[in-house]
Request: fold
Amino acid sequence: MSDTRHIALVTGASAGLGAEYCRQLAQSCGTIIAVARRADRLQALQAELAGSTRLVPVVADLATVEGVTRTVEALRQQGPVDILINNAGFSTFGDFGRSVLEDELQVVRLQIDATLELVRAAVPFMRERGGGQIVNVASIGAFLNMKQTAVYGGCKAFMVSFSQALQAEVAADNIRVQCLCPGLTRTEIHDTTYFEGFDKTRMPPELWMDAAPVVAASLAALAQDQVVVVPGSVNLEMVRGGLQQQLQSLQ
Reply:
């Protein structure tokens, strides 16, 4: 990924993993289309990376039809993109049977619907250009019992299955698909009003990772033929345990 003519589109780019993807892609991409809801954060990131890449801020809420439409239009006008990072996401926290249904549907719209629409928009261009890279950010929750974050876990399980099937479909077109499955990461996802009642201090320190090594592991793995990427040895052990429990439940 040394060709500075690369064009990337990163969603959820205003903070956390999304902003870190922009930072680490800045040296290899001539243009980064950065999509998020917070214009001030995107402008700050644009200024930070001004000496390394051309960052195009797109202020959009991908949980809405208007936001997805605006982003797809940016992909077409500023692209075609060589790298698509579907990172935008959030989660509710609590008993699904007592939850606000519209909040749960927003989780689905952002993490499934928007991802599908952006991938569908990008793949034809990648085929025409002879290749590309797609990263769908999921979670180790795709493999675990996600009590109190049931919809989030279900969305991430979908992302794993979709990414694996998509890679089988586009492998002959020189398109690499990755599903990144991090564990607990120091981002802002746990600081929203949706996560009231979640105490981060109860989680052992060894379960947490910073955004920078997670993104570094993702980008390094793009050079390999590995679809599902789980950064961190502790996270990998948790995923293996979750899969083993699923196998045992089938007996």
About this structure: The chain is about 45% helix and 15% strand. Residues 201 and 208 are 11 Å apart (CA to CA).
